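Hi Y.,

Following your request, here is the sequence exactly as I used it, all 168 residues.
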Amino acid sequence: MLELRRPNEADRDTVLDMMAEFEELESAHDGGFWPSESFCYEEWIAANLDAEMGIGIPQHWVPSIQFVAFDEHGKALGFLSLRLRLNDHLLAHGGNIGYSVRPSQRGQGYAKSMLKQAIEIAASKNITRLLVTCHKDNAASRSVILANGGQLEDVRDGTERYWIEKRS
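Below is the corresponding structure, written out as tokens. Let me know if you'd prefer a different format.
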């Protein structure tokens, strides 16, 4: 059982452990953002809450919700960012949702479950049409998107753009 939710203070050790794994392996952590210099977990949690309201985010960003996926034992498995609207850059390259599974946990269906839950959360916020993108060489992400109903619109500069519609 996988739970996708906002991280909190109690999740500090497991989230930091996951971040360290991404960093050690120099693995992309789409859907999870943190400063590599002078990182403070508590400030990251506060900044995530501000970002939901569009407070203190860079001018080219949009309000978003930072989620972390946890297994039934509370181990952090991956990141997911739900962007609450699209700008020109996200429309071309990033989409409404970015996600990544920690390297040691890939290939177990977690990304598929994370995206499925994110689609439901988005629908609860009246976002029923989502853009999800992946690089044309990322077969695993493409499979996750297709398994969640993604319909390919086009490919732009190596980025495949899929729309997922949540029907009631």
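The first strand starts at residue 3 and ends at 5.

Thanks again,
Q.
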